[in-house]
Specification:
alpha/beta, Beta-carbonic Anhydrase, Chain A, 8 helices, 5 strands, 41% helix, 14% strand, disordered N terminus, disordered C terminus
Length: 236
């Protein structure tokens, strides 16, 4: 696939008008593209699409990413690598523990409403250090120093939800935190919720396995196929 891009004209701020022409895709097609790229990465046959000098020049005047990745800042969670994508494909926002504040939500809203991006992915991973830090803080009734406290505080609702469900292992808490982040984003952003309700966008929570390199769906909101199904990717 040489290009993917934004849906047609929609309400909201003006979209970027410069750059090459793009093809409109649905949230389900965008998810299929990510899934196909991750399979290539896992099996060791990546294509490294859209990473050549010609494509670099083609996207210099405008961007039309087909997915927003709200991911953990962990150095082993590089979205363009694990999904086998290139320049202009993914709009990536990363914070420790994929915590979301106004700047993160604003970035997501920009991608969805200005760039027309049809898919938002919350990407967590196993053995998450941020989750472990929050778990330790909750168990010892202490708070870390400096601005790390803000990260831990932002994760406490997920820790409380895990405690209520009797979930104590870090990876189980990660799944709960991913699902909570999806819910919190939709609850905090009327703009994003409206795009999902209109069928122009979908939000998916995914967890990445560090050793295996695989992603799996934890939760989803929007017009998407059953996660158990094997969607057919858009044409490459």
């Amino acid at each position: 696939m040489s290009r993917l891009g934004s849906p047609g004209a929609q309400p909201g701020p003006p979209r970027e008008s410069t750059g090459p022409a793009v093809t409109s895709i649905t949230p389900a097609q965008a998810l299929a593209e990510l899934s196909a790229g991750n399979r290539r990465f896992v099996t060791g046959i990546p294509r490294h699409p859209n990473q050549d000098a010609g494509h670099r020049a083609a996207v210099a005047d405008g961007q039309h990413p087909f997915a927003v990745i709200v991911g953990c800042s962990d150095s082993r969670l590089a979205a363009e690598i694990i999904f086998d994508r290139g320049l202009g494909d993914l709009f990536v926002v990363r914070t420790a523990g994929h915590t979301t504040g106004p700047e993160v939500l604003g970035s997501v809203e920009y991608a969805v409403t200005v760039l027309g991006t049809p898919l938002v992915v919350v990407l967590g991973h196993d053995s998450c250090g941020a989750v472990q830090a929050a778990k330790t803080a909750a168990e010892t009734d202490t708070s870390p120093a400096g601005h790390l406290r803000a990260v831990v505080d932002a994760m406490m609702p997920s820790l409380r939800r895990a405690e209520a469900a009797g979930v104590t292992d870090v990876d189980g808490i990660v799944d709960i935190h991913i699902a909570h982040t999806v819910e919190a984003m939709l609850g905090s952003s009327a703009v994003l919720a409206a795009e999902v309700a209109a069928g122009r966008c979908a939000v998916v929570g995914m967890s990445y396995r560090l050793a295996a390199g695989e992603v799996r769906t934890v939760t989803a909101a929007g017009d998407l196929p059953d996660p158990a199904a094997d969607p057919t990717p858009a044409a490459a």
